[in-house]
Request: fold
Amino acid sequence: MKTKLYLAVIAIIILLYIVFQIDKETKSQTATIGSVKKVTFAASKTFSPAPIWIAKDLGFFKQAGIDAEVINYSSGKTTTEAMLKDEVDISASAEFLAVKKYSKNKELRILSTSAFVHQIKLLTLNASKISKISDLKGKRIGVRIGTNGEFFLSRLLTLNNLQNNDISWINISPQDKADAMAEGTVDGVITWPPFVQHIQERLADKISVFDGQPGQDYYYVLLTKNSWYENNKDTAVRVMQALKMTEEWIFQEPEKSTQYFAKKFELEPDKVSEVLKRYRFSISLPQTLITAMEAETRWLQKEKQAQDKQAVNYLDMILFEPLLKVSPADVTIVH
Reply:
């Protein structure tokens, strides 16, 4: 009799424990849902920051407990300027712009990469008789000053024994380059998808296309200010969770991804497939990011565009903790 009573008491205790754990988990989930964090992102409507757009459009931010607003800006330059003015919380740009801005503002921080890219093209008018890069001498080339287009155009000139002052630099936003080409106010432009494809559709056989970044890829990165991060550490982790879910979706659903990009950027699916061959969407912190940033720092110093006259320790710029908590294997920067 005592044995049965003992077993009954044990069973009741186990049952009460299970009920307590279920109630605790339910309350925890409710608290998470009730503590949704508002985050404002700035991104250009281009391929490189696409994980941000996808996370918003397909609900990955919502799954991570983030009420996300994504504001469309013309370029990585304008997104980062908006973030530094506290108009948004997180911006997306090429790592070149991060390097350039960090020289003047040590509040700037990198959360992760969003993509590894080789898609910058030099498009030239056939009427301007440019059959090789050395023919650029004396020509008018449209470029968005302050973006990585400026860096890659200068590098392209150097690789072909030309100086920066051998061409006329015409400062044009990415959205206006197609008009400039069509109107003949420039002889060529340096740009990236989807603007490359839009110009090709519009001008077809009137243009030639050259690789704008031979021998060097670049990263797109997510940027914020240290002051925002210090007050939103948990939110930063949630952002990484949402973007890792997005990266996995892109990898697992190639056909749906192509359809999404085609609709988002108003391109034919076959052209999207061709573009995506030169993109690797990756929420990571690779060692090669530091290597690229150091090379760009040397270029900025040579061009007298950097306030830092000595080598810069970019480890101070990287926010390691959020991604380490979500996906430690994707952090390979030695620190």
In short: The chain has two domains: 34-117+218-330, 121-211. The radius of gyration is 24 Å. Residues 37 and 232 are 9 Å apart (CA to CA).
